[in-house]
Amino acid sequence: MGAYRALLGAQARAQTAYRTSFVVDLVGNVGATVFDVVTVFVLFGVTRELGGFTLHETLVIVGLSSFAFATADLLVGNIERLPRYVRTGLFDAVLVRPLAALPQLLLMDLPVRKVSRAVFGLAVLVASLASAGLHWTAGRWALVLVAPLAGVVFFGAVFVTTATVSFYWIDSGEVANSVTYGGRDFTAYPVTVYGGWFRALFAYGMGFAFVSYHPALALLGRADPLGLPGWAGWAAPGVALVAAAVATLAWRVGIRHYRSTGS
User: Fold this and answer.
1) I need a surface site. Which of 19, 68, 86, 254 has the fewest CB within 10 A?
2) What would the pLDDT profile of 114-152 be if each residue is shown by its tens digit?
3) Of 206, 184, 188, which is closest to residue 197 (Cα–Cα)?
4) Cα separation of 180 and 202, whole Å?
5) Of the candidates 58, 72, 62, 76, which has an alpha carbon nearest to the alpha carbon of residue 33?
6) Model pLDDT for residues 30-72, shown as the tens digit of each residue
7) How is 200-247 classified by DSSP, letter by letter?
8) Phi, psi of 53 (to 5 degrees)
9) Helices 2-15 and 101-108, interaxial angle, to 10°?
10) Three-state secondary-structure class, residue 50
C-alpha cells in the first residue's frame, strides 16, 4: 500500500503544483455535470411531467446518477486511456513492475480536478432529497447511503469492463464511450421515457435501471410504473456486485490474452 500511496501523493502534488491552473480546471470540470442538471430544468420548462415523474422526483434520479458517475469517473475513469497505453507499449512497462496492473493504471494520472464533479453531484442529490419532502425512516437512511455507493461501484465496473475490449481491439474507444457515457445519460432520466428493446437492453440487460431509477422509486415511496416489485429499489448493491464480478473476470481474461506490442 505504501507504493500506491506514493503514486497517489505524487499525482496530487503534480496536479496542484500550479494552483491557479488547478483551480481553473477544478471549476471548469463542474460544467459537464451542471449541464446535465440544466437540461432537466429546460425539459421541465415545456412539460409538467417527464415519463410520469415530476421535477423534484426527476432531480432525485439525476442526483443519484450524477454523483455515481462523477465519482466513478474520478476514481476509475483513467482506465479509458488503456487503448493508448496498449498501442504505445506503456502497458508493457506497467506489467513488469512489482505492483498490480489495474491500481497502477488508475493512479498513473488520477484526475484530481474531477473531484468538483463528484461534489456537485452530491450537492444535487442532497438538495433534491431535501426538497422532496420525504419522511425519513431507518430504511430510507440506509438506502440513501448504500445506493449512491452501489452506483459508483457499478459505473466503475462498466469503465473497467469496456476498457478491456482494447486488449482485443485497440481502436475501441468510441464503443466503450457509447456504454459508459451513454449509460450516464440513460440513468439521468426515468427509464419510462425509453421504450422497446432499447429500454430492455440498457435498463435491465445491462442493469443501468438499478443505478438511479429503482433506488429513487424506493426513496420516493413510489410504485414502479413498469410493474417491478418494490424490493427492486434495494437490488442496487447486488447488481453492483455482479457488475464488479464481470469486470474482474473480463480484466483477468484480458490480461491473459494480452501478448505485448512487441516494442
Assistant:
1) 19
2) 788 888 899 999 999 998 888 899 999 999 999 999 999
3) 206
4) 11
5) 62
6) 777 788 888 888 988 888 889 889 999 999 999 999 999 999 9
7) IIIIIIS-GGGTTHHHHHHHHTPPPTT---GGGGG-HHHHHHHHHHHH
8) -115, 145
9) 20
10) strand
Under 8 Å between Cβ of 232 and 143: no
Please state, in angstroms and as integers, the Cα–Cα distance from residue 81 to each residue in 55, 85, 102, 189, 254, following that order: 36, 6, 12, 28, 15
Q: Residue 81 corresponds to which cell in the numbers above?
A: 486511456
- Distance (Å, whole) CA 257 – CA 246: 16
Full-prediction pTM beyond 0.70? yes
Residue length of the chain: 263
User: How many angstroms separate the Cα of 60 from the Cα of each of 147, 151, 163, 189?
Assistant: 12, 14, 29, 10
| 72 within 8 A of 149, measured Cβ to Cβ | no
Report the amino acid identity of residue 66.
S
